[in-house]
Amino acid sequence: MKHHNPAFEAINPNIGSSFTSLKFQTNENIKSHFWHYHPEIELILVKGGSGKRQIGSSITYFKDGDLVLIGSNLPHCGLTNENTNNEHEIVIQFKPNFLGDKIWEVQEMAKIAAMLEKSKSGMVFGDEIKKAIGSKISQMHELQSVNKLLKFFEILHDLSVSEDYRILNAGKYYLQTHVEDNERINRIFNYVKDHFKEQITLEEIAELANMKVPSFCRYFKKITNKTFTQFVNEYRITHSLKLLAEKPMSITEVCFESGFNNFSYFNKTFKEYIKKSPSQYRKEFNFLIV
């Protein structure tokens, strides 16, 4: 099977605008559901729906929509696919210097500049600010010319003063600055994305990276701040969260459908990551199995 490097995505601003604002209905944007990167900073609002959030080495589950800010050249997957069941998705893309190199040095822009620096590791915003900003993003998308730009800066300001956010990739995320790492690590990420339901050995993944197993383990930990086993388990647990919340499957079925071949190990790993058992997590969604 051929394994693809992350695709470089070329982005052009909307006609008559210095940045891009795109609106996709339901699962219309599923073509972006692969590893890709671009120099533009990206603000994404997913209205409703649930799914995997895969940004850098962070793999998490979102429900009832999402609001994320992704920094320049940070590899990520699109947030929506045919299973997300979202209402719509608005994607705003802009280059860091879209209004010139000096604008972020202006004192009034200090908080926005600091936020954009944090976005290099990926930021996800909480429900409170997501609800407050969602309507403004929808309004901005319909505006034109200077009114659109002013509304955009209002949105950036509101986000920059909010404390309702979480950084997705702890510490320095090296994939932003080393192209050779970008290509190698994303070849690995793509393989996990396509094969997480199967057994993945360290030997085969090290061979994919053209490295010996011990060297690969040290390399992967340095790049992602987690072991390869932790990374794969996070991917599998994230998949299980969606199944537990949305599918009428037994917990045993969820275990094997998520790539775990041992039920007790699945339970143990789930509790380590989620701090509760799979059955407790499912009860939170009031999901009744017939």
Beta strand count: 10
Q: Roughly how many Å is the radius of gyration?
A: 20 Å
Approximate shape: globular
Measured distance between first and last alpha carbons: 39 Å
Low-confidence stretches: none
Keywords: DNA-binding, Transcription, Transcription regulation
InterPro entries: Homeodomain-like_sf (IPR009057), HTH_AraC (IPR018060), HTH_AraC-typ_CS (IPR018062), RmlC-like_jellyroll (IPR014710), RmlC_Cupin_sf (IPR011051), Tscrpt_reg_AraC-type_HTH (IPR020449)
Organism: Chryseobacterium oryzae
Domain HTH araC/xylS-type: 186-284
Write the layout of secondary structure elements.
Layout: E1 7-8, E2 20-25, E3 36-37, E4 41-47, E5 51-55, E6 58-62, E7 66-70, E8 88-94, H1 110-118, E9 123-125, H2 127-142, H3 145-160, E10 165-167, H4 179-195, H5 202-208, H6 213-224, H7 228-246, H8 251-257, H9 263-274, H10 278-283
Parallel strand pairs: 1-3
Antiparallel strand pairs: 2-8, 4-7, 4-8, 5-6, 7-9, 9-10
Helix pairs in contact: 1-3, 2-3, 5-6
